[in-house]
Amino acid sequence: MSNKIKHLEFIQNVITRMGQNSFLIKGWCITLLIGLLALHAHKPHLNLFWSMLILLPTFWELDGFFLMTERRYRALYDRVRILDEVAIDFSMKINVKDCSWHDAVFSQTLKLFYLPLIIIVVLLFMVKT
């Protein structure tokens, strides 16, 4: 049973790391967006607007990658959880069919985070011009 527990711990560590990466991505996105909005408020410029519109989808896609990877490792965890002790081989190979990049990027949680930010940026640009 100790092999199974150790293998599950390895997988759980990857899942935790992906969650932390996603949290950091959101933090960096907000930090950079606020910085660009502050610059835009001080001196409105079209380049700042385009920078914000490039920044948000880029972070959204990267966050989607981390969520996709996390979901794939959660599926691996579920498969390992039901394996017999003798079948444990400590493989960390994930199945790409468990979660697609598209499903992760357009998940409810990411849409509810990034879409309002994009809408705010567009509305602020429309008000400033």
Automatic annotation (TrEMBL):
<feature type="transmembrane region" description="Helical">
    <location>
        <begin position="21"/>
        <end position="42"/>
    </location>
</feature>
<protein>
    <submittedName>
        <fullName>Uncharacterized protein</fullName>
    </submittedName>
</protein>
<keyword id="KW-1133">Transmembrane helix</keyword>
<feature type="transmembrane region" description="Helical">
    <location>
        <begin position="48"/>
        <end position="69"/>
    </location>
</feature>
<keyword id="KW-0472">Membrane</keyword>
<keyword id="KW-0812">Transmembrane</keyword>
<feature type="transmembrane region" description="Helical">
    <location>
        <begin position="110"/>
        <end position="127"/>
    </location>
</feature>
